[in-house]
Amino acid sequence: MRVPSFSIVPHKVSTRFTDPIVAPLATVGVTPNMISITGFGGNVAAACLAAGGQFRAAGLVMLIASALDLLDGALARKTGTVTRFGALFDSVLDRLSEAAVLAGLLFHYSERGGHTMEVAVIYAAVVGSIIVSYVRARAEGLGLELREGLFTRAERVILLAAALIVGSVAVPWALWALAVLSHATVIQRVYTVWRKLHADD
Q1: 194: which of 27, 54, 148, 158 is 20 to 30 A away, CA to CA?
Q2: Catalytic residue among 90, 94, 200, 201, which?
Q3: Residues 6+ apart with CB under 8 A from 171
């Protein structure tokens, strides 16, 4: 029995869009790990801007830095340098990048006082994002492919970056959405794994 999948944002980008970008990068010796590290550095910069209350700048920097995640894998495939360590390294930096921006917001709200709810919601969002990835990792450890996800990293990045760009009024609402939808995705993925494990029963 086939288990239906559902996600909001397509997670594959056509090589028609990535090849014109990664081809010159490969020519000058840029490696996939360099792109991953640059993206992480950009998200750390976005976190610092968010911590200082410069939300719009933080959102723009986060969006640009996170867009690099579309290029490291494409560059690896273009240059024939796809490795298991590279995939692991990229995934670790992706998790740290997301946590960094949320940490910046955590600092911003905790420093100003009177924002206990926002601090608690940020914590819930961090936990949710970690468990979403953890469920996928455990599923793959069981020999299952798990791409399904209502609210995976792509959706979370777009939502948070967009809210930061809109401004301080939108950020708390986005944090609530991140917290709720991340945990909903955990439930969805656990159920999907259960269905796949029992598909042949």
Answers
A1: 158
A2: 94
A3: 55, 105, 163, 164
Q: Is residue 8 part of a domain?
A: no
Q: What is the CATH number of the domain that holds 52?
A: 1.20.120.1760
pTM of the model: 0.85
Q: Is residue 139 situated within a structural domain?
A: yes
Q: What angle do CA 167, 172, 176 make, to 5 degrees?
A: 140
The number of distinct structural domains making up the chain is: 1
From 9, 18, 130, select the one nearest 69 (Cα to Cα).
Answer: 18
**Distance (Å) of CA 170 to CA 106, 160, 174, 185:** 15, 9, 6, 22
Catalytic (active site) residue 90? no
Confidence of residue 201 (pLDDT cuts 50, 70, 90): low
Show the domain range for 41. Answer: 15-197
pLDDT digits (tens, 9 = 90+) for 15-37: 666 677 777 877 888 888 888 99
pLDDT tens digits along 37-94: 999 999 999 999 999 999 999 999 999 998 888 788 788 887 888 888 888 898 899 9
What's the pLDDT score for residue 69? 81
* Amino acid, single-letter form, for residue 173: W
Domain assignment present for 6:
no
Name the H helices within the chain: 15-27, 32-51, 55-67, 69-79, 84-112, 116-141, 153-166, 171-197
Question: Residue 107 burial (CB < 10 Å; 0-12/13-18/19+)?
Answer: middle
